Amino acid sequence: MKNDHFSSLNPQLQQKLVRLGIRSELELILHLPLRYEDETRLYPIRDIPDGKTGQVQVEGVIIHCEVITRSRRQLVCQVKDASGILFIRFLHFYPSQVKAYSIGARVRVLGEARTGFFGAEMVHPKCRIVHEESPLADTLTPVYPITAGVTQTALAKLIQQALSRGHSREYMAETLPEAILQHYQLLGFRESIALLHQPPPDITIDLLQSRTHPAWRRIKFDELLAQQLSMRMHYRQRRSYRAPALQERNHLTHVLLATLAFELTVAQKKVLAEIKSDLSTTSPMQRLLQGDVGSGKTIVAALAALQAIENDYQVAVMAPTEILAEQHYQKFLSWFAPLGVTVAWLSGSQKKKQRDLELNQIAAGHAMLVVGTHALFQEQVRFFRLGLVIVDEQHRFGVHQRLALREKGSEPNWLPHQLMMSATPIPRTLSMSYYADLDVSVIDQLPPGRSPVVTKLIDESRRSEVIARVREACQAGKQAYWVCPLIEESEALQLKTAVETYEFLSQTFPDLKINLVHGRLNAQDKSAIMSAFSQGEVQLLVATTVIEVGVDVPNACLMVIEHAERMGLSQLHQLRGRIGRGSEAGICVLLYQKPLSQIARERLRIIFEHSDGFEIARQDLKLRGPGEFLGTRQSGIPMLRFADLQQDMDLLEAARTVAETLLRDYPEAAQRHLQRWLGDKNAYLRV
Ligand code: ADP
Ligand code: MG
């Protein structure tokens, strides 16, 4: 669409429009109103509804106008019609306004009225001079998202022009087959667009404002459909690569299962069956394994790994932090060494000699399982025959990193199977939309015998009681974490706080064995401290949030989190998940400092009231919206501008089904639909 009218606009204007995401005539047309103003009617001033009833328009004559200084300089005018007087007030104004609103001038005023000091008043209304015969608008006035340098009026005009030109253009043609329009009772595309830009006079404004009008529903459906199409196409694309078929052999897996001290939960068995069946085909698995903290994802990963190893394929296990990677390494080693499976270890801080040794083992195919951090992505890492990649806490890795590992496949058109694990449960609406390019398995059950963690919210001023509690617990043979506050602005400051906390607690508890773990320690020290803690040689572990992910020390049953009000919900949930892993009931003390912001108060309430990770995630999503929730995944995935996953669940379900139908039966329509909504933004995520 290079030769469309957009490119003939002046370049400065084009640049400004690009800031609004508008790069073509079509994108001008798809730039839909935020809301509408009703300038089709006039209210008598006496009948103006009070309070939050939305905007109303009145017309009258200025009978008084002056600049006054009441707490600050402001322009106050009185407008009179046949029924009463309205005060209008401007806190920012130009000298030209003072001049224009002179006594006798007729004005049309649009705004939200409320009862002020003098009676009905509007602050900063839209206000313009009119004549007695100035006609009223005959349609609702759309209000568009704008940017500096482009006014409402200018943008509205550009859109109108684009609309009239676009009317006959190919890019406005219906993309959906008639049968689908009928079945889902969808309004036509062109019709919907026209209606939203130029609503007819008789329309119910509420249906437009709440975006429940069929025209809005059509647009939201289209947007969701484009997202589904894009994600499903990439899914299919990846499926078209070849992967080794890793048959179920069940030699080693059965031996491992027999040595475990526990039996798999029903949920673990279910997800394992899904994974096993994926692995046995020649299409690369791309599965996301979700399960709340402590639901037992690691053993599932180990059993999946064994299926690859039994077929003489190597497995890479990646974790986002050294502590977690090290812990996985120890765990896998303890499970796999007795089976005669060699496990290799790669980390960034490893000595060169050790590293070379491991690299050789991997390249020669002696090491069948490789555990590591980001170090696994490095170029020197050559696998002999990589069959499966397991990524723990997948949301911590960027898209590019995962991509790099893919390149480790030996032949072209070849991809290893991939299992991604996440302890941040993803609400269903999100996993249906933003994760539609993956298969999802959920462990929806915790192993038996877990006692729920009791959460206590305690004001910082009652710190001494908490200290007494910690001493008691440790003296009774239990172990505890003391988590230092998160200081986002500065890592150095965070470290300083952690060291100070450690010193303070060492003085407070001269009788306890205390240690400190933080992100700046080298890997060896970190792992020495963690293993001392897991062997019970350390009673109280002071820690920064490095322990947030994955750490598993069942005997630790008390956790104190300082400045809990600074932490995000998923972080709090993850931290809290470190305790209550053994049979002992866990206690999590959230120390907070007042004053609490609205959002902090809300977060603390949610974490206090809920222990189910999915419920917490749902609430978190409501609090923050999908953008932040998705984190790194956001880059590259088509985000939604119009559809609202809470409100439009039914449309999402429909879009999912229709996407499959289009890809199967109407590939050309699918292509056109994608082109309209995503254009070249469709070239994303290939992992
Ligand atoms: P997460 O899903 O958070 O990664 P882990 O895999 O670390 O959880 O498991 C948490 C703890 O639960 C570990 O100590 C693990 O050995 C134990 N566990 C896993 N599955 C079961 C089970 N079916 N029954 C009892 N304990 C289990
Ligand atoms: Mg884990």
Automatic annotation (TrEMBL):
InterPro entries: ATP-dep_DNA_helicase_RecG (IPR004609), DEAD/DEAH_box_helicase_dom (IPR011545), Helicase_ATP-bd (IPR014001), Helicase_C-like (IPR001650), NA-bd_OB-fold (IPR012340), P-loop_NTPase (IPR027417), RecG/Mfd (IPR047112), RecG_dom3_C (IPR045562). Keywords: ATP-binding, DNA damage, DNA recombination, DNA repair, DNA-binding, Helicase, Hydrolase, Isomerase, Nucleotide-binding. It comes from the Bacteria. Residues 278-443 form the Helicase ATP-binding domain. GO terms for biological process: DNA recombination; DNA repair. Its EC number is 5.6.2.4. The keyword Cell inner membrane does not apply. Residues 476-622 form the Helicase C-terminal domain. Plays a critical role in recombination and DNA repair. Helps process Holliday junction intermediates to mature products by catalyzing branch migration. Has replication fork regression activity, unwinds stalled or blocked replication forks to make a HJ that can be resolved. Has a DNA unwinding activity characteristic of a DNA helicase with 3'-5' polarity. NCBIfam families: PRK10917.1-1 (NF008163), PRK10917.1-3 (NF008165), PRK10917.1-4 (NF008166), PRK10917.2-2 (NF008168), recG (TIGR00643). This is ATP-dependent DNA helicase RecG. The lineage of its organism: Bacteria, Pseudomonadati, Pseudomonadota, Betaproteobacteria, Nitrosomonadales.
